[in-house]
Structure formats: C-alpha cells, structure tokens
Amino acid sequence: EGSFLYTPDNVADLAQGWMQFAGGPCVFHSRGWERHGTWIAQDYFPAFPDDDATFRALSAAAQATGGLQFVFLSGYKWNLEYNKRKDGTFEYSQRNTFERTARPHCAVGRDGTIREVRASWLRGGANVTLCRGDKWSRDVIDRVVAQCLERGVRLVQMDQVVGGGGPACYSREHGHPRGAGLWLHDSLVEQLQGLLRRGHADKQPFGLSIEEPNELYLPYLSFYHARDHELFGWPAVAGGDHAPIFAYLYHEYGLGYSGWVSHGVGNSSLEKFPHAELISLARSFVYGKLPGVYDTRYDETQPRRAHEKMLQGYLRLLRGVGAPYLILGRTLRPPELAVDQITYSFTQYNRRTRQAQRLERSFPRLLHAAYRAPDGTLGVALANHTTAEVAATLTLPEGLLQKELVLHTGTGERQRLTPAGGKVEVRLPPTEVGLLLSRAE
C-alpha cells in the first residue's frame, strides 16, 4: 500500500528470525507485492517497490532457510482502474489496454455485456473477469505463473476463484457452450493441471492453492486456503460463525492452511480483543491446519504477543509427534469433553448496516478434536485459548481405552495420565496446546 517493510538488505534477517522462532523453515506470504497495488491484476511485474529486487531477495532468503515465498494471484480478474481521486481520475487505469487486448476474452452476461465490479479493495476502481473457457485467458494465467517461477516463487494461490467458482459466459466466440455448464469445471481443471506441470517441470518444490476449498479440485491442488478458524466475517453472514465441515470430511485428502489468524474476527480491532487471536489459533490447531499469522516480523526485542506461546507450541507439535494426526490423519467424531464455557465480547463492523455491532460468543475453555493416523492409532488434539489453567474430563474413544496415556504439550513436556472408568482428567496451562496419545506412540 505504497510502502514496503523489507528491502534486499533485511529479508535474510527476517527469514532467519522466523525460522528460529518457528523451529524450522517457514512459508513467507508476500502482501502488496503487485506492481500497481494490492489485488491489481494482471500487470503484476516488475514487482513493487523496486523492480523485483526485494521480491527476488525474499525468494532467495526464504529458500536459504529451507522455506519458500508464497503469493496470491487475483485469479481471472482483470483490473480496469484503481484508487479513484477527488477529481474523478484514477491513480491507475488500464482501460485502454483492456480495450485493445482483453475485452474479447471476458465472461459475457446473458445480455451480451461484461460485468464491472467495484470491489471495496479497489478504492472506487473496477475489475472484470476473464472467461476461463477461453484459451487466451488461461494463457494469461500461465504466463503470470511462469513469471513467478522465474523470480523464485514456488507457491502460488489462484485467489478470487472462490471454491473453484466463476461466472457463466454467453459468448459465442470462446469455444465453450453458452451459459453455465460442465465446461466451467473442465476449464479450471485444465488450467490447474497445466500449472502443476509447469511448476514441477524443473523438479523443484512447487505448490498450488485456491481460495476456499472444494472437493472437486483436491486432486489438482497441493493445499488449500480456508477460513473455518475465524469467528466472524466473510464467508459467514454478518454476526455468524464458521464450522470446519470441509476439514472434518476431507482432512486426510487435502492440506489446509488458516489464513490468517490475526484476521480472526474480520474487521474487529485485534489490539482491543487479543483473545481473538488466541481462539482463532486454537481452532486452527484442533482443525488440523497449518497456521497462518499476519505478523510482519518476529523480533526478540519486542514484547511477546498473546498468541506467540501458543503458536510456538502448535508448530512444535505439528513438526513432531503431531504430524501423523494433525496433517495426515482422518478426523473422527469428537469424544465427549466435560469443561466449563467462557464468554468473549467482540465489536464488529457490519458492512450491510454500516454500523458497529457488539457480539458475544461462548466457547468451551478447552477446544478438542480426534484424529486417526495412517497407522491406525488415535490422538486427541486439545487447545486452551484462555489465560488461565483449564481442567477437563475427557471420555476416551475406544482406541485409547485401557491404555496408559501421554499428553504431549506444546512446550515439549509429557504428562503421563491414568484413565479411570473410561475417562481421564486433562489439564492445560494458559494458551497451551496438547496432543493426547497412548504411551506406546
């Protein structure tokens, strides 16, 4: 947004600091890297702010620490204008280029017009959508991904292709049946398969994602972006909450990541409601997702934020004993957990009413979920999102009955627990995560 936190001189320190904090390599998601502004497509390169210099340096720094750089592409969007000024002109306009090149390749409505959308992030500007059934449009995306790869970016998300969705098109010139139809799906599959072939052609790591999951596309994706850890905000209706239905059904078939924990309550002020980060991170953990945090840097000289202890424990378990369950495991029906509730208050801006609204939600003080690892063993993930120790009684699932149990905590401790009558009492310190396994595991 007109400034950049990193330069070629400091990105190596950024990567090294986060690797030390996380206990291993990290994925670095660049935001605001696009040449003309955030979410401005398709003229992305050379990247902001210094003609690719910082962009390439971050790719190199990430890879030097075992990590990768990750970018969002604005899917099939084509930006027309951005940031409308008081005099009616725009900071950026691509209409002339659009008329010369892209207009014939856009999705066309039933009435023959091309829909212009004035999304809030375009600040008075507008974009249109290229037709994915048109080869010219797919070639545009293919060239952009090639440009990313050439700059060392190995992870790419087709953003704004929400769940694989896209507009119907009534053009007679694109080579697909008019209107909606199976061609929408087939065209996206063809695009994703082509991108995977391109990304893997040099035998280097490559990953492809879309915004919000869809089981139809799991065979063609490396991972997916989801918001089920969030408390409020899109795609839930105003004041609504999210449920991890997709993760519950398809956990062992697709790697999900939570983007981003620091956006856990939509437009709410996280400085005012620090518990939002904690419960969002706790939900991400028990849902078996890779965590995404929206922090600029990890700096030992700065005060630790409320969620950092939980995040470190989360990563320690995910990289270690928790991987077969939280990454590769199948989600099971959660066993009964007897635990007190806690009520949090939030303030959220309602875009429909344009008013701030006060929201209250009650949650179990200890969140939990059960997983079966590929070897058949069971584990129960637990997360204490509160600032006090929590005790709870867990009714053990069949796979953990009659066994000595060990609670592996995020700090690396192992608590030996003895079941009684098919139940076991568990205790977790403040902002701590844990994984309950049989002693043999």
Compact overview of the structure:
With 441 residues, the protein is of the alpha/beta class. It is 23% helix and 24% strand. The radius of gyration is 23 Å and the shape is globular.
| Radius of gyration from CA coordinates | 23 Å
N-to-C span: 48 Å
Strand residues, percent: 15-25%
Structural class: alpha/beta
Number of helices: 9
The main sheet orders its strands as: 12-16-17-22-19-20
Number of strands: 22
Poorly predicted regions: 263-271
Helix content, binned percent: 10-25%
Mean pLDDT comes to: 90
Shape: globular
Biggest sheet descriptor: 6 strands, antiparallel
Describe the structure.
Strands 12-16-17-22-19-20 form a six-stranded antiparallel sheet. The protein is an alpha/beta fold. Helix 1 (11-22) runs parallel beside helix 2 (53-64) and helix 4 (135-150) runs parallel beside helix 5. The chain has helices at 11-22, 53-64, 95-102, 135-150, 182-200, 245-250, 275-286, 308-319, 323-326; strands at residues 27-29, 68-73, 77-79, 81-84, 90-93, 127-129, 155-158, 207-210, 224-226, 256-258, 290-291, 330-332, 337-338, 341-350, 355-364, 366-372, 378-384, 390-395, 405-409, 414-417, 423-428, 433-438. 23% of the residues lie in helices and 24% in strands.
